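Q: Here's a chain of 185 amino acids. Please give me its 3D structure as tokens.
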Amino acid sequence: MTVIADEELVERVLRGDEAAFAGLVDRYEARLLRFLQTRCRNRADAEDALQEAFVDAWRYLDSFDPRWRFSTWLYRIALRRAQRLAKRRRDDAALVPEPAEDPLAACMAGDERDNLWRIARRRLSEDACAALWLHYVEELPQREVARALQRSLPWTKVTLLRARRALRAAMSEPVAGGNKSEAYG
């Protein structure tokens, strides 16, 4: 089975082949959702951002520059959507008082020590988490990570280095009520 390059699918969509866009969605939907889950508060928000990102990609596909990777362009759109959604959620939350204790948050706090990405979200900036995810999970080269995050290549390299060090330190910290091997290993 021959795999059609992203750029060829984009060309087909631009010529009117709507099924080619479905191919792009199929190719990136699961990966993009996993990435957005590292950027959003919950799965529902990640799914909302994913849907809006694909709508934006469809709407603005003619602005895609084939000199760059399609995945980089798509991740940049998804990042913007996640940021807009987070801002909208913060604005909405300001209108509603917080409950005294969220049982789901309390339950999830117990599992945090076992999940590297939850630790990363708690310890690192959003951009640092995104850089780690794009580079190590999505396997984008550092130059593409920089482009997706709209940062310089040196910023990306330094951020990845510092993020790795911060996670290494967090993973070595003893956990209250147990030793680190029980908590992280």
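Q: Can you summarize the key feature?
A: The mean pLDDT is 81.
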